[in-house]
């Protein structure tokens, strides 16, 4: 799943974050090792370790000496909070700005979203 989008170590970090957010990697469970990630994605183990260490620095993972890295308590909520904020910045704010330009009120926009959701 490593693609040509951005530094590989950040893609590794994003893969682990996604597993935490979707629940496939639960809090207090052991994260994949840098060697496991490197072998699976055919990347350098040092690159995988850099991605994992970034998550440690962010407080998403923690190290148990001699055992490995584990998902920190509260990591999922921390990630959800950050991603919701990023979602608002990336999608909602521009959406609202364009709606204002077009004279669409917040209620009309909400109704459009509701209709779209019902049609799915």
CATH superfamily of the largest domain: Winged helix-like DNA-binding domain superfamily/Winged helix DNA-binding domain
The assembly state of the depicted protein chains is single chain
Q: Going across the biggest sheet, name each strand in turn.
A: 1-2
Order of helices and strands: HHHEEHH
- Shape, principal axes of CA atoms: elongated
Evaluate the radius of gyration. Answer: 19 Å
Please report the total strand number as a whole number.
2
Give the structural class. Answer: mainly alpha
Question: What report would you give on this structure?
Answer:
With 120 residues, the protein is mainly α. The chain folds into two domains: 8-73, Winged helix-like DNA-binding domain superfamily/Winged helix DNA-binding domain (Arc Repressor Mutant, subunit A, Orthogonal Bundle); 76-119. It is built from five helices and two strands; from the N terminus they run αααββαα. It has helices at residues 8-21, 34-41, 45-57, 75-102, 106-119, and strands at residues 61-64, 68-71. The chain has a two-stranded antiparallel sheet with strand order 1-2. Strand 1 (61-64) and strand 2 form a beta hairpin. Helix 1 (8-21) crosses helix 3 and helix 2 (34-41) packs across helix 3 (45-57). The longest helix has 28 residues, at 75-102.
């Amino acid at each position: 799943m490593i693609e040509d989008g951005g530094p590989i170590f950040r893609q590794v970090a994003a893969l682990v974050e996604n597993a935490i957010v979707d629940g496939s990697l639960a809090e207090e469970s052991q994260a994949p090792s840098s060697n496991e990630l490197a072998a699976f994605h055919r990347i350098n183990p040092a690159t995988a370790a850099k991605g994992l260490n970034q998550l440690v620095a962010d407080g998403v993972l923690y190290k148990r000496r001699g055992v490995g890295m584990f998902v920190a308590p509260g990591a999922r909520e921390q990630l959800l909070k950050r991603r919701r904020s990023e979602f608002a910045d990336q999608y909602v704010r521009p959406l609202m700005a364009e709606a204002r330009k077009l004279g669409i009120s917040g209620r009309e926009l909400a109704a459009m979203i509701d209709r779209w959701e019902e049609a799915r």
